[in-house]
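User: I want to check something. If I give you two sequences, will you return the structure for each one separately, not as a complex?

Assistant: Yes, each is folded on its own. Here is the first sequence with its structure:
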Amino acid sequence: MDELIRTIVEPLVDFPEDIKVTQEENERGFTYILSVNKKDMGKVIGKKGRIAGAIRTIVHAAGRAHQQEIQLTIQE
């Protein structure tokens, strides 16, 4: 799943080497935490959070395809 997140985010950012994806397990499933360079944060979030919402939707749908509950958190 982290490769999927990286594949989606890399073309959006100017500093792809700063992309970090970590995984945490919780009672509902998994939470992936995406961290990018501070200068790229606006590009990943998008206007009114639309890009972030789209990324979360794709990740959630991919998790459902594998019968997993997946959430994505974007962290500075």
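And separately, the second sequence with its own structure:
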Amino acid sequence: MLDIAVQAGPDWSADEDWEAIGTKAVTLALEHSLHADWLTRALCIEVAIRLTDDEEVRSLNAQYRGKDAPTNVLSFPMVQPDLLDSLANTDDGEALLGDIVLAHRVCVREAEEKGISVTDHATHLIVHGTFHLLGYDHQGEAEAEAMEALETQALASIGLADPYNRD
């Protein structure tokens, strides 16, 4: 079971059902990960998603990553990667997987550059952030290719184009 809490700031369109979008994106990432079986367990997986402004993301990025600039998405895992597998042995209970934070203007600008909707881009960024919560990374070339392939597969399963524009 998933428990996705979404908090959308005033810059984010009130016409969108961000709770449903967030839940769909987290589900997609889980379905395409090594932890897909969690979706069939009694285990409650919790993820918090904050859709905020660039200034808040800039502040978080400076504080936690030493980079004084906004970025599109930040992920804050609550479970260490080496402990994720232990959740597979749990049939009940709760696991706070972590937090995902998106910056509004960065997301809008990137969506415009890609020629896609903000909703589709935010979906991709939440999928990307969820993979980080699940222990995936893109520090090395092989890791990046593997993570990007999973993101592309997940998004393709709902009809969204390859976010990395590979032919």
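Because they were folded independently, the notes below concern the second chain alone. The chain has a mean pLDDT of 92. The radius of gyration is 15 Å.
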